[in-house]
Amino acid sequence: MSAAADDAVAALRAEVAALRARVQQLEDVEAIQKLQRIYGYYVDKGLWSEVVALFSPDCEIEISGRGVYLGTAGATTVFSRLIGTLIGQPGGADGLMHGRLHNHLQLQGVVNVAPDGSTAKGRWRALIQVGVIGEMGHWAEGPYEMEYAKRDDGVWTIRVMRWFPTFYTPYEEGWGRTGLPMPGVSAEFPPDRPPTHVYETYPSVFVPPFHYANPCRKKT
Known about the structure:
The protein has helices spanning 3-44, 48-52, 71-87; strands at residues 55-63, 68-70, 100-113, 119-132, 136-150, 156-163, 167-170. The chain is α+β, with helices and mostly antiparallel strands. A hairpin with a 5-residue loop joins strand 5 (136-150) and strand 6. It is elongated, with a radius of gyration of 21 Å. The N and C termini lie far apart (45 Å).
């Protein structure tokens, strides 16, 4: 084979390798988007054991000002105890109580996969409806900053979840009239670490740090 032919074959191999890497990256982004949406559907119905199974064993979870919970035990505490106490079954069992509502929409996903393809970061917006019929109805909203890790078997898991609420407000009054305070650290179920940020919800303003740079700004 001539030198020119060798060069052509080498160029084709490089192009194929680049295309394979690009396809893998797109597949990873799609898998992570699906993972996050599945999380939202499980949280909707209080399926806490299914939610916890989406997290890696070394996970970190921080929801509002409650502090940071670590590992599978921490994830179980967050979902079946801290969240499940209001809307879930007694004892933290899966499923919503009768007359409870917990819609958890996952919106505006931005996912960035690391060059090595084994980790990724994401930012999402949650729009939440919480209801206990005859007693209360709340709106809540805020962005997630996420980190994901790929297992040895190629399955993506959630490694870090931080949710920063923008507002809590009663349905009857809405955000035009009332901003409820952010939940603090639980005395009954204390976190493993204190909150990473100290801030207040609406009417105060807090912008959680972005994991990505503005793609349209020129690099200097």
